[in-house]
Design the sequence.
C-alpha cells in the first residue's frame, strides 16, 4: 500500500508512528518491522538531515540507525510517499 504524507516526519520513530496513525493504529501499542516499509528519496533525506548535529560522527550514527532500524529507500517513489507491506505493524 502506498500513501502520501502531508509533512515529512523527522526521525525514524516519528515516521513509523505517523504511518501507524494513517493506518488507524495507536502508535503506543505498535511494534514495527523495518523490512516492510519503503520511503521516497525526500523522506530518506529529511530523516538523515535530522541526525546532522554538527559533530564529526553524525554520519556514522545515522548510518547505523538507518541500517538497523530504518526503512528502505525507493528512488522511484514520488515525493512524500511511503510504501508499506503487510506485517509492517505488529
Sequence:
Amino acid at each position: 500500500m502506498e500513501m502520501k504524507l502531508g509533512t515529512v516526519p523527522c526521525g525514524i520513530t516519528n515516521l513509523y508512528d505517523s504511518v501507524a496513525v494513517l493506518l488507524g493504529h495507536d502508535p503506543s501499542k505498535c511494534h514495527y518491522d523495518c523490512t516492510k516499509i519503503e520511503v521516497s528519496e525526500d523522506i530518506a533525506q529529511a530523516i538523515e538531515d535530522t541526525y546532522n548535529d554538527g559533530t564529526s560522527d553524525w554520519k556514522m550514527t545515522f548510518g547505523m540507525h538507518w541500517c538497523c532500524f530504518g526503512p528502505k529507500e525507493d528512488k522511484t517513489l514520488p515525493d512524500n510517499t511511503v510504501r508499506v507491506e503487510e506485517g509492517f505493524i505488529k
Summary: The chain has one domain: 2-84. The helical segments are 12-22, 41-51, 58-69. The chain is about 40% helix and 15% strand.
